[in-house]
Amino acid sequence: MNKRKPFLFSLLNIPPKPLFCNPFSLMALNQTQTQTQTRTTHPDLPPNDELLCSNPQQNQDEQSCSSLSDTPPSQIGCPGKYLSGESRVERAWAHWTKLGRPKLIVAPMVDNSELPFRMLCRKYGAEAAYTPMLHSRIFTENEKYRNQEFTTCKEDRPLFVQFCANDPDVLLEAARRVEPYCDYVDINLGCPQRIARRGNYGAFLMDNLPLVKSLVEKLALNLSVPVSCKIRVFPNLQDTLKYAKMLEDAGCSLLAVHGRTRDEKDGKKFRADWNAIKAVKNALRIPVLANGNIRHIDDVRNCLEETEADGVLSAESLLENPALFAGFRTADWVADDEKENLDGKLDQADLLLEYLKLCERYPVPWRMIRAHVHKMLGDWFRIQPHVREDLNAQSRLTFEFLYSLVDRLRELGVRIPLYQKDT
Ligand SMILES: Cc1cc2nc3c(=O)[nH]c(=O)nc-3n(C[C@H](O)[C@H](O)[C@H](O)COP(=O)(O)O)c2cc1C
């Protein structure tokens, strides 16, 4: 890997993260291979994809591994309760500053921003990360769901743990279980999918702002870690600003704004509205993060400049290129005549191999691994589609199979570098 200091770090005056991590503890992995009973399984995936990728007992570091379900709810009191608005804002900034004011952040992604992927992104420049959305009710009720869907380790910080919810008491109970392991408990107020409409959570709570207010207040008054929210914008800017102010007043300590409306589901079709994000940033006093339209590191810089946000979230582009925040870019974002000089000496297959090693260390369901293989090697499969077909035909994945799949692509002569350029 080219170890040049990525330009953004110079720009932001932040030292690059060390390239190696040495996680010491695994949590929440005390069950044997088992089927997840509580989540919606992907209809197009073989049932074995619901299994953990390896026997956690074989992977646990000998040093302290604990089950989340053994963790007692936090005993710490109610820090936000008696604070005035002014003090709450000061406290929000003090916390953000204590975390190093991370600017480059892995967005929450169901089945995709799991521990090994977060650790890979952290190695390549991400300064904070969200877990996938967890369902607060299922999280409180089902130990298997907790153990399988939320894992973390000492190096996995700063960490936002995201829940969807529509009942303040249930949300608090879920949040109390994770607060010792994270830096924010986040409320998903942006999911626009049908499942969120049916479940009455995510962006569909935009139709019930008093309920949203009660969710935020409940956490802000009772948790020891701050509460953050991730929202979508309303079609009308004034509605968005009123909404954002309400969240701040209710005790939200950090707001991530996805600059698309609830109806703008297709991120490729609709550009996120950075002006709306900028208006929210200007109207609020707590830290604000921008989300949408980040395809490469120039977008990161432009987004920070244009929105004046305190950080950016990236989702889709990181799936294809987990090294985006370290300045690596896919071929789409480099002119043909520049390519020869800008080979970053790193490619998506290298990143996939690193990801697989992290999965051996931090077991996750195979369905997550399968999804990442398709995303990271999508361009490679387009050149050798029969290799993709072999992967799809494999109802039970193994690490051996996946490592050999990368070898096969390389033997077939496929290599698509990631590029690096100072801009
Ligand atoms: C696979 C996938 C899963 C996602 N899951 C979540 C989620 O669990 N919670 C959430 O708030 N947003 C979720 N999102 C939305 C992203 O966090 C992000 O808001 C959206 O993709 C826009 O960012 P982007 O333009 O960088 O992709 C998901 C997006 C993707 C692509």
TrEMBL record:
InterPro entries: Aldolase_TIM, DUS-like_FMN-bd, tRNA_hU_synthase_CS. GO terms for molecular function: flavin adenine dinucleotide binding; tRNA dihydrouridine synthase activity. CDD domains: DUS_like_FMN (cd02801). Gene3D superfamilies: Aldolase class I. Residues 54-73 are annotated as: Disordered. Its cofactor is FMN. Residues 106-393 form the DUS-like FMN-binding domain. Its EC number is 1.3.1.88. SUPFAM superfamilies: FMN-linked oxidoreductases. The gene is LOC111291790. Keywords: Flavoprotein, FMN, NAD, NADP, Oxidoreductase, tRNA processing. This is tRNA-dihydrouridine(16/17) synthase [NAD(P)(+)]. Belongs to the Dus family. Dus1 subfamily. It comes from Durio zibethinus. It comes from the Eukaryota. It catalyses: 5,6-dihydrouridine(17) in tRNA + NADP(+) = uridine(17) in tRNA + NADPH + H(+); 5,6-dihydrouridine(17) in tRNA + NAD(+) = uridine(17) in tRNA + NADH + H(+); 5,6-dihydrouridine(16) in tRNA + NAD(+) = uridine(16) in tRNA + NADH + H(+); 5,6-dihydrouridine(16) in tRNA + NADP(+) = uridine(16) in tRNA + NADPH + H(+).
